[in-house]
Design brief:
The structure is a homodimer. Chain A is α/β, with parallel strands linked by helices. Chain A is about 45% helix and about 10% strand. Chain A is globular and about 55 Å long. Chains A and B meet through helix 9 and helix 11 of A and helix 9 and helix 11 of B.
Chain lengths: ~350, ~350
């Protein structure tokens, strides 16, 4: 890590204020880039996730084009199911053909060994590191315990998380044991990514807003805390991104996460007020702003940067994944605006 | 209205504390009730919405079974498009086959006359009032300007509101004029419902969370305020329910809404702290609690009631529509628990 040519992202993770505010974009390697679409004409999404060299190729596309300050492994939070004999299909939304609903389903679940079964992810991390040649750090990631488990129980994306919450409300002990096993698997998975070379980790609790703040505190937060603590023993910074409910921010602020990801549903200065000025924040431009025009984009980027000054340190990012309808040139303009100010 | 046999709901709307906390459920006339499913075997959803006498029948089903303190007109926020020559199909999600995207689409839009074109809704209101025979008050409703417009622009439900926000960010003046026309139409529509007999109005901003708090304040809130003010001139209480982002509550609290609906994404006592103790609140049990068991339901209902004591007055409700997988007996248990405490 000492040899990184651009370490502004890791400096900000540590709470420093590098000369330029570091910036990367959630889903920066993706469908808005013609180079990515070209690769996807050859490979399905899952084939790509399982091809370490092609993952590295795709991971580096936005580094070359956008000049962002961090790379994030091209992968998906659901590939972890490969260590559980759970089959995910993308149609194009993720679909799990055998959702886990009954006691019988739960009894049959196998929480396997990421080291033995997710080798292709670790190979992809290593391939990315080689390809990056220390230009910028590499972020590894996983889904948070609730988010990952909810896919397993619902069988895909969900609006109301009916099955997950039915289990949580009706059989909290069973639900807790499932989250515990999931957390253990995810911790091993992330530690494997760090061993393979990841310089930082982001945990995506994409469906944190599935439950009330009270239920998050009671049923979910202890597992999030556990996961963060275990990954931090490996010495890399952890970014915790719980999306969709600003009312959860004060809970996230009680964890040891090095960086707190802020989605666009709250103004960044309000978020910083809630979590206190001593934390590092990441975020939070509404990705749809990038569908507008250069003037609007510049103005909104500067507003987010200004708000970010109230935090200990700030990593500029979108408040959610970049839209696939974004013109790459406008994403680049965003990065340039951050770097220039 | 003087002759209402049960006026606890309207008393609470006025800020009074009736002997029993009034309670009704969002989507209380719906698929979880076998009586409703029986009607739907005869009529499609839209046929039902357009049949005043059958609407009244369905509207009264939960009054009879649950003993709730208010009826809400059985209808849909999208029937207002019948005054715009916009065709909605339910497949089963709402689909608008001619979404409004281009300047050309916008130029062709017609904001018609609810009095002339939505007569069947007013007839349904009148039929409900007759059938209710003053047992409980009747709530009329509509979608908020943003929510209604977003269906028109997106062509249905949306996750990221790409088209709506592209327009808002790129052409705020055009977007503002659309919202203005929509607000005017919705105001006329609600005033028509009041003239037909509705005793209160609820405005559903189901997709309020589509935009950032800042954009809601700039682009959306003025229209919400306008709509509320116009309906209040008719002398009925207005419930404003903006769903999905607790960070918007303080903005909603700046309107003249008589009652502020609280969804389940925030704890009710925290919501009351944010909007101040001088407001009437409605909410906010997580509907998925009703999928659990009697003990859990009783406990969670009492917790919400306890939190509600911090407000000026409290109308008990769910924090979102009741799930169609709810056992009717458990919904009834919820109502009994509210009434008994």
């Amino acid at each position: 890590m000492a040899t990184l040519l651009n370490s502004s992202f890791l400096a900000a993770c540590r709470g420093e204020r590098p000369a330029r505010t570091p910036v990367w974009l959630m889903r920066q390697a993706g469908r808005y880039m013609p180079e990515y679409r070209a690769v996807r004409r050859e490979l399905s999404f899952l084939e790509l996730c399982r091809s370490p060299e092609r993952c590295a190729e795709v991971t580096l596309q936005p580094i070359d084009y956008l000049d962002v300050d961090a790379a994030i492994l091209f992968s998906d939070i659901l590939v972890v199911f490969d260590a559980m004999d759970v089959v995910v299909e993308f149609r194009p939304g993720p679909t799990i053909t055998t959702p886990v609903r009954t006691h019988d389903d739960i009894a049959k679940l196998r929480f396997g060994d990421p080291d033995a079964e997710l080798g292709y992810v670790f190979d992809a991390v290593a391939a990315c590191k080689r390809a990056l040649a220390n230009r910028v750090p590499l972020i590894g990631f996983c889904g948070a315990p609730l988010t990952t488990l909810s896919y397993l129980i619902e069988g895909g994306s969900s609006r109301d998380f009916e099955h997950t919450k039915r289990l949580m409300f009706s059989e909290p002990a069973v639900f807790g044991r499932l989250l515990e096993s999931m957390t253990d698997l995810l911790a091993k998975y992330l530690l494997g990514q760090v061993r393979a070379g990841a310089d930082a980790i982001q945990i995506f609790d994409s469906w944190a807003a599935a439950v009330t703040p009270r239920d998050y505190r009671t049923h979910i937060l202890p597992h999030v805390r556990q996961l963060i603590d275990r990954v931090r023993t490996a010495g890399v910074p952890v970014i915790m991104f719980a999306r969709g409910n600003a009312a959860l921010l004060e809970q996230i602020a009680t964890t040891e996460a090095d960086v707190i990801g802020i989605d666009w549903s709250i103004e960044l200065d309000d978020a910083i007020r809630q979590i206190g000025p001593g934390r590092v924040v990441q975020g939070n431009l509404d990705p749809m702003v990038l569908l507008s025009n250069p003037d609007t984009i510049r103005r909104r980027v500067l507003d987010v940067l200004e708000a970010g000054r109230h935090a200990k340190a700030h990593i500029f990012n979108l408040g959610h994944g970049i839209s696939r309808h974004t013109e790459p040139a406008l994403a680049k303009l965003m990065v340039e605006t951050v770097h220039a100010s």
